[in-house]
Specification:
The complex is a heterodimer of chains A (about 375) and B (about 260).
Chain A: H1 9-46, H2 54-72, H3 89-122, H4 134-147, H5 149-153, H6 155-160, H7 164-187, H8 192-216, H9 219-230, H10 238-256, H11 259-265, H12 269-274, H13 279-301, H14 307-319, H15 323-347, H16 356-378
Chain B: E1 3-12, E2 15-25, E3 30-34, H1 41-48, E4 56-61, E5 64-65, H2 71-75, E6 78-81, H3 93-98, H4 111-123, H5 139-153, E7 157-161, H6 169-186, E8 189-193, H7 197-203, E9 206-211, E10 214-219, H8 221-224, H9 227-234, E11 236-243, E12 246-254
Parallel strand pairs in B: 3-8, 3-9, 6-7, 7-8
Antiparallel strand pairs in B: 1-2, 1-4, 4-5, 9-10, 11-12
Helix pairs in contact in B: 4-5
The chains are: A mainly alpha (about 375), B alpha/beta (about 260).
Chain lengths: ~375, ~260
């Protein structure tokens, strides 16, 4: 194949047209998912215990944008925007709904992308932040902070107020668990099955810790812990959004840049190595970045399950295995699913809010059954 | 491209799998590695592919040490087809072959890359299956796709680890004929691990027999694959049978 390729014209149609047609389909799909997410955002802003009309939503959003822009470019201040019909609209939209919507988007995005990358790195369709022990470890960190944190830190804890210690512990344990899992699997060779097994086992050990914490906990603390373990967007605040946005987007970009290496890894470790990829380093850095993104979000939201497993699967079916498209697809779909679930959770029994996990696990559970039943014919299981 | 191995030793922990092996592969030649299970054929292929690191000895390509060549540059010169193939669900044939262009692709896929994929698929007679999913193919078709991936990589040296072991006799001959063609047309070299002594006998320019990781014979097929040596290495009696198609090795029974 040393000479310049000169395929005959009739045959050239196949690979070239397949590639271009596939690419077009993928771009259309990504555009469609972006629209879905935007629609979900508009719906989430306007629905809730106090309904806000679409008109008011647009008006207060425009006002908010104007405030920011006027700060940077004074001429914008002179643009007149009519006042909203509901005088409370600005407070509700900016004070409560937007932080919550953005937290749901960031969390859904991070968990879905983390799941996609973990599945790609370990070539296993059942891997997710849950199966690798991350969620259990983060739960344990949070449980320690909730149950024995106050006694341990006393006044310091009380003065930090805003659950900072819980967030920190959940993040720390979530992230450290992956180092632990990786370290254990490395000491026993480098097979992916060992890594997954180590993740499952570490998950159970942390689960034991969580049960222990529940057992020794006082009633008040137990309630806090149970609420945290159920997961939800209750912790939403502009602070959370401001902290998470750069972290999540940074991780997303770093992982997206690994796309071709992830694609190549699908051909097996040996082939990837022969293609010049440092497989061990790729696997370690990829897992660490994915875990970092997932832990950051879980720390604020509590345990949000299934999305890291479900979004990648749907996306693989929709868009194929090219991670250049698969990762953004998962990000958009994960964000949409979590945002829609959260909106349903807070409006279905309004003014009472039910945990988003209930909605998510139902969707996730039925999807999982569908996968198993459908997978039989495709040789998945 | 000239590949030279000098006293190469490779080990898995304490277990030495390849001991002081030396070999020279010149352009346009097919070197077949034969030997019983566990004799070090795969280890040798993986060592040359830098999947395993040699514990001692040197491996050079055109005079430069392979461990000093940039891995991506090396990947454009050596194409590896493993014994056990791996693919993921929802991968199509042409996407799998496109991965062979990985050393050349930065982010976007150019028209030339696609043309290379097309050519590689045509070379193994799989162009019409370009859009099919990998899990819809038969074992023989899949093997051809992986060979096409190596072809798309456009290397000067091909490493094949028992590419014919899962194939029926028709596909075995097809694969070997393809390898013969690429060495003839592109002056590429091939190092291939084979179980079938007759394929080695018929297609290889040089045969290396390995036994417990050490070289038990190296030279032209006719000189190396003789009944005495095969009895010593495999513990099998063979006869050399000649007919109008050439000479064949006929295993008779286990040595007593």
């Amino acid at each position: 194949m040393a000479e310049k390729p000169q395929p005959n014209a009739a045959m050239q149609v196949t690979v070239h047209s397949l590639y271009h047609a596939g690419r077009l389909k993928k771009i259309v799909l990504l555009a469609g998912l972006t629209l879905l997410l935007l629609a979900a955002i508009v719906h989430a802003v306007s629905s809730g215990s106090v309904p806000i009309s679409v008109h008011d939503t647009v008006v207060v959003t425009a006002q908010g944008l104007q405030d920011v822009l006027a700060h940077l470019f004074p001429p914008f201040a002179s643009v007149s925007i009519p006042p909203p019909d509901n005088p409370q609209a600005a407070l509700i939209v900016f004070g409560f709904r937007f932080p919550r919507i953005l937290l749901a988007i960031l969390t859904g995005l991070s968990l879905a992308v983390a799941g996609t990358v973990m599945q790609g790195l370990l070539r296993n369709p059942l891997v997710s932040p849950f199966t690798l022990g991350l969620s259990s470890a983060a739960s344990f960190g949070a449980a320690v902070a909730i149950v024995i944190g106050p006694a341990f830190l006393g006044t310091v804890f009380a003065s930090t107020g805003d659950n900072v210690f819980i967030i920190f512990m959940a993040f720390l344990f979530g992230w450290l668990s992956m180092l632990l899992v990786y370290g254990i699997s490395r000491s026993r060779g480098t097979s992916q099955s060992m890594l997954i097994l180590a993740g499952v086992v570490i998950g159970y050990i942390f689960q034991a810790g969580v049960l222990g914490m529940k057992y020794i906990s006082s009633n008040d603390r137990l309630r806090d812990l149970v609420v945290w373990l159920m997961g939800g967007m209750w912790g939403a605040s502009w602070n959370a959004v401001i902290i998470l946005t750069p972290l999540c987007l940074g991780c997303f970009i770093l992982l997206e840049r690994m796309s071709w290496d992830l694609n190549t890894l699908a051909s097996g470790d040996d082939v990837a190595k022969s293609m010049g990829i440092d497989v061990e380093r790729l696997r370690l850095t990829g897992l660490m970045i994915a875990t970092f993104a997932a832990s950051c979000c879980l720390a604020f939201t509590g345990i949000i399950g299934f999305i890291g497993l479900m979004a990648p699967h749907i996306c693989r079916m929709l868009i194929g295995n090219d991670h250049r498209y698969l990762i953004p697809c998962s990000a958009l779909l994960g964000a949409s699913i979590l945002l829609i679930s959260d909106t349903v959770a807070r409006t279905i029994a309004s003014p009472v809010e039910i945990p988003v996990g209930i909605i998510m696990y139902l969707i996730g559970g039925f999807f999982f059954l569908f996968l198993i039943l459908r997978g039989r014919g495709r040789g998945l299981y | 491209m000239e590949l030279v191995l000098q006293d190469v030793t490779t080990a898995y922990g304490d277990k030495i799998a390849l001991l002081n092996v030396s070999l020279k592969v010149t352009p346009g030649h097919i070197v077949a590695l034969v030997g019983p299970n566990g004799s070090g054929k795969s280890t040798m292929i993986k060592t040359i592919a830098t999947i395993l690191k040699a514990r001692s000895g040197t491996i050079t390509i055109d005079g430069s040490d392979i461990y000093r060549i940039d891995p991506i540059d090396l990947a454009s010169r050596i194409g590896y087809v493993p014994q056990q193939y791996t693919y993921t669900l929802y991968s199509t044939v042409f996407e799998t072959v496109l991965l062979g262009r990985r050393p050349y692709i930065k982010w976007t896929v150019s028209e030339e890359e696609l043309s290379r994929v097309q050519l590689a698929l045509e070379e193994v007679d799989m162009a019409e299956s370009a859009g099919r999913f990998m899990d819809q193919l038969s074992g023989g078709e899949r093997q051809k796709v992986f060979i096409a991936r190596a072809l798309a990589q456009d290397p000067a040296l091909y490493l094949f680890d028992e590419p014919t072991s899962a194939l029926d006799i028709r596909h075995q001959l097809g694969v070997m004929a393809t390898l013969k063609k690429i060495t003839m047309e592109h002056k590429s070299s091939v190092v291939i691990a084979l179980h079938d002594l007759n394929l080695a006998f018929r297609y290889a320019d040089t045969v290396m027999i390995l036994q417990n990781g050490a070289v038990a014979g190296l030279g032209k097929p006719k000189d190396v694959l003789d009944p005495d040596r095969i009895r010593a290495v495999y513990g099998v009696e063979i006869r050399i049978v000649e007919n109008e198609f050439g000479q064949f090795l006929l295993p008779v029974h286990q040595s007593l």
